[in-house]
Amino acid sequence: MEYRQLGSSGLKVSTLCLGAMTFGEPDEKSMMHNLAADQATSFKMIDRALDAGVNFIDTADIYGNDGLSERVLGNWFEQSKRRDRVVLATKFRFKMWDGPNGSGASRVHIVRTVEDSLRRLKTDRIELYQIHMQDLDTPEEETLRALDDLVRAGKVLYLGCSNYAAYRLTDSLWLSKSLGLERFVSLQAQYSLVVRELEREHVPLCEKFGLGILTWSPLASGFLSGKYKKDAPPPAGSRLDKLKDWFKGFDTPRNWKTLAALEATAKELGTTTTAVALRWLIQKPAVTSVIMGVRTLQQLDDNLKAGELVLPAEVIKRLDEVSAFELGYPYDFMKRIQGRW
C-alpha cells in the first residue's frame, strides 16, 4: 500500500480509503436502505482493509440513521483496540436534529455535532473533520473560527471540506491565511472517469494551494464496476437499480464509450474494471486518496487490487482521451489559444 501526505500537511494516509457510508443497516428513511452491510460484515471489512495496509477510514454523521455509520465504527474501535491504527475522518453539515439549528455550519451546530460524533465514535479526537458542503447561510469566517477552536482544543487535528464551489474554497483559504486560522488541508469531491468536471477549477486550485483531493464515488455509484450493460436495465438489487434517476444520468454515449474502453483495458492488463478505474484516479497528481464504498468482502478485495496496480502512461492517456468532456467557456477558449487552461 502506498501512503501520501494529505495536502501540505504532515499527515500520511493510504491511497485507498475505506468509505463507511455502507456501515450498518439503516431503515427505509435512508437512501442506503438495503444497500449497506450489517455490523458484523462491516467489522470484517475494516479488519481486512487494515490488514491490507489501509490506514484511512471516512464516515459522516449523516450516514445511516441517527449516526449509524459512526456508531458501528465506534463499536469496532471499542472491540478491536486498533484505534491508533486508523486515520479517522468524519463530516458534519446536514440535518441531524429538528429545529432551525439542526443543520448548517454555524458555530452552534458545529459545537454540538463534534461532541455527538466523538461520543458515537467512542474516541477522544478526530484526525480529519470535514464540512460536508458549504453553507450559504453562514459566513465562512464563523465556520472557520469554530473549527479553529476545535483544533486548539485537540478534539480535531486537521480540517477538510467537501462539495465546495471553487470560489468559496478560494475565499476560505484566503480568510484562514489572513486571520491566522487553521485552514483546510483537503477537498473531498466527486471524481471519476465519467465525472471529471472537477478538473476545470478545483484540481488546479488544489494543486496551487496544497490541498489533497479525496475522491468520492470513484466508480460512479458502481457504473464503472462492469456490472452495467448498454441498453439493459440495471441488475436487480444494485445501487443504480434503486437510484434509477442516477442511472439515467450515466446513460450517455460518452459514458458507455468510456466503460467499453475501461473493460478493454482491464482485459488487456489481466485485472478488473474496478481496479483500473480506481488506479486511474490514484495516478492523478492532485489526488491523495480514493474512497472505496463497499458492502461485501468480495467488493473490498476487488477494490484493493488497485493498490498493487500501475497503469502505463499510454493507458492513462487512452482513458483520458476516451472520457474527455466538454470544457465549456472560458476553458475551451483558453485551451484553444494556449493548449491548456
Provide the fold topology:
Blueprint: E1 3-5, E2 12-14, E3 16-19, H1 39-51, E4 56-58, H2 68-80, E5 87-92, H3 107-121, E6 126-131, H4 140-152, E7 156-162, H5 166-179, E8 184-190, H6 198-209, E9 212-216, H7 239-242, H8 244-250, H9 253-269, H10 273-282, E10 287-293, H11 297-304, H12 313-322, H13 331-338
Parallel strand pairs: 3-4, 3-10, 4-5, 5-6, 6-7, 7-8, 8-9, 9-10
Antiparallel strand pairs: 1-2
Descriptive account of the structure:
This protein has one domain: Alpha-Beta Barrel (TIM Barrel). It has an 8-stranded parallel beta barrel, surrounded by 6 helices. A two-stranded antiparallel sheet has the order 1-2. The radius of gyration is 20 Å and the shape is globular. Helices cover 42% and strands 15% of the residues. The mean pLDDT is 95. The chain has helices at residues 39-51, 68-80, 107-121, 140-152, 166-179, 198-209, 239-242, 244-250, 253-269, 273-282, 297-304, 313-322, 331-338, and strands spanning 3-5, 12-14, 16-19, 56-58, 87-92, 126-131, 156-162, 184-190, 212-216, 287-293. Helix 1 (39-51) packs parallel to helix 11 (297-304), helix 2 (68-80) crosses helix 3 and helix 9 (253-269) runs antiparallel to helix 12. The chain is of the alpha/beta class and 341 residues long.
> In percent terms, what proportion of residues is strand?
5-15%
- Rg, alpha carbons: 20 Å
Average pLDDT score:
95
**Per CATH, what is the topology?**
TIM Barrel
The CA-CA distance between the termini, in Å, is 33 Å
Oligomeric state of the chains present here: single chain
Sheet with most strands: strand arrangement: 3-4-5-6-7-8-9-10
By DSSP, the count of extended strands is 10
Question: What is the highest CATH level, the class?
Answer: Alpha Beta
From the spread of the alpha carbons, the general shape counts as: globular
What is the chain-wise order of helices and strands? EEEHEHEHEHEHEHEHHHHEHHH
Structural class: alpha/beta
Largest beta-sheet details: 8 strands, parallel, barrel
What is the CATH architecture descriptor?
Alpha-Beta Barrel
Domain module tally? 1
CATH superfamily: NADP-dependent oxidoreductase domain
**Helix count, per DSSP?**
13
Helix content: 40-55%
Uncertain spans, ≥5 residues at pLDDT below 50? none
